[in-house]
Amino acid sequence: MAEFGGKGNVQAISDGVIHQIEAEGFTFDLESFPWFFPSIAEYSSLMEQAGFRVTFAHHFDRPTPLEGKSAIKNWIDMFCGGMLAGVPESKKDCLIAKVETNLKEVLFKDGSWIGDYKRIRVMGYKE
Q1: Fold classified for 2-126
Q2: Has this prediction a pTM greater than 0.85?
Q3: For position 43, what pLDDT does the model report?
Q4: What are the φ and ψ backbone dihedral angles of 30, each rounded to 5 degrees?
């Protein structure tokens, strides 16, 4: 049994970061994208190739509250360091502030930031 980020996980946040990097005139290197968020079909196929029989797979939304007033900035600082590798240190805070402004309409609900998490839960048996 496993659970992890699935296709579309934190898509609004990661797309927002990539968009702002490019809007600021920097090049986003796809190699610096730190995650693999597969679909059920992709992951089930990988499990089968490794000798597992997949008996259950579920892809679901898991909106996740992000704590504090600086939740998006903190999240980006914590998880997106590699994505910002080509951005000079002196430009990062301004870039992140713009990402936060752009995401507010989408991810700020009832006074709280909500991460757009999507999860896969899968179960399989080694044959």
Answers
A1: Rossmann fold (3.40.50)
A2: yes
A3: 96
A4: -55, -25
